[in-house]
Amino acid sequence: MKKDEMNTRRKHIVIIGGGFGGIATAKALENANVDITIIDRLNHHLFQPLLYQVATAELSPGDIAAPIRAIINKNPKAKVILAEVKKIDPKNKSVHLQNGTSITFDQLVMATGAQYNYFGHEEWAEYAPGMKSVSDALKVREQLLMSMEEAEQLQDHNKRKSLLTYVIIGGGPTGVEMAGAIAETAGNGSKHGYKTIKPEDAKIYLIEAGPRILNAFPESLGEKARKTLKKMGVKVLLNTPVTNIEKNKVHLKVGSIETPNIIWAAGIKASSLLDSLKVKQDRTGRVFVSPDLSIPEYPDIFIIGDSAHSKGKDGKPLPALAPVATQQGKFVGNLLAQGGKRQKTAKFNYIDKGTMATIGRAKAVADIKGLKFSGFFAWFLWSFIHVLSLIGFRNRTRVFVEWIWNYFTYKRGVRLITDRSKCNSCTTYEKPHNELLKMQV
């Protein structure tokens, strides 16, 4: 290639991942004279903080997701490729896809997100699904609703007890929010049309291996959340590590719980795609990055979001949260938009705007710049910020209206069972319909 052609050719920036970090990077590059390619194995951006509400039948998947193409459609220099990345060749600056093709880049931004960490027990995933995608949430929703449908038809107390028992493993924000949402759903069966299910029939366990829940929050808010969950009927088991999970059974350090309703929310690890870079990673697989979020060995490759081991002002690794990924994406996008004027001394500084977790209807905890809130006001702040954070006027409006409806009616309108063949329950669910009728007679 001739020198003048090299000077006129636009740089090609590849972004892997259409999550918070990837979308923020692309938006920051909208006015830059560069070509952008976003690669994702899914065609939509997902607002993961509200995924648990899809699992508990409060929202539809379409309320918290938006097509990636629609989000970046205004930029004629950006395109989207629906594909799964197999590996990265950092030396030759190429991305290899599962379909056999490869894409070269001038700069690469990896916003590959994270997956649930089963701490060496990957076989547990079959019986205790996590929630990182719409399909995960729908799988959990099918299981929870089908358990209630089965329990509605049974007279045998022991069988009903197992079906109306729910175990959430992990006391972080996802686990706490999930436990509270299940308590409101299963504990109000009569409001959802289940005539024989009483509030006291539902047994909900939130299991945490550590000494307290919401470990990233001030201890006082964690204790407030524990007491609130207790009032809602959730049994919080602290200092209780899980030793094994099998079909319809969770084994604890002391004792076990029988139920088909097991949900994993106990930890995450970085995408295995990062291993192909062959650079230094921490114990959860995150890549150690420079102050400007690039890899020391490869200054044209940037790692952001859940994939990056980046330290905050306190010297501790930044948490795997959406605000972190969003701010890092915007920072890297602005950095790359400078082109040849890129500053070598650039440093990312995370601005912590606070942490929040909802526990249920008009119940939440929030820590905003040292100010601690709980109850209705914290819930209102949480709701307001989450609605504004959604992408698209349509999604914001639909979620706002749905939440108002749920607040005043206590009803969840997305209680749909669409794929009965994939439920994990081992009781009447697997029996033919005529066999179920004989058993009830």
Précis, in short:
This protein has 12 helices and 25 strands.
Please describe what this structure looks like.
The N and C termini lie far apart (about 80 Å). The strands form eight sheets. The protein has a six-stranded mixed sheet, with helices on one face. The protein has a four-stranded parallel sheet with strand order 13-12-11-17. Residues about 1-5 and about 425-440 have low confidence and may be disordered. It is α/β, with parallel strands linked by helices. It has helices at about 5-10, 20-30, 50-55, 70, 135-155, 155-165, 175-185, 220-230, 320-335, 375-390, 395-410, 435-440, and strands at about 10-15, 35-40, 45, 65, 80, 85-90, 95, 100-105, 105-110, 115, 165-170, 205, 235, 240-245, 250, 255-260, 260-265, 270, 285-290, 295, 300-305, 310, 355-360, 365-370, 370-375. Helix 5 (about 135-155) runs antiparallel to helix 6 (about 155-165) and helix 10 (about 375-390) runs antiparallel to helix 11 (about 395-410).
Shape: globular
Count all strands and give the number: 25
Radius of gyration from the CA trace? 23 Å
Strand order of the largest sheet: 5-2-1-9-21-20
Given the structure, what is the number of helices? 12
Strand content: 15-25%
**Main sheet specs:** 6 strands, mixed
* Class of secondary structure makeup: alpha/beta
What is the percent of helical residues?
Answer: 25-40%
Overall pLDDT, averaged?
87
For the record, give the distance between the C-alpha atoms at the N and C termini, rounded to a whole number: 81 Å
Stretches where pLDDT is under 50 for at least 5 consecutive residues are: 1-6, 425-441
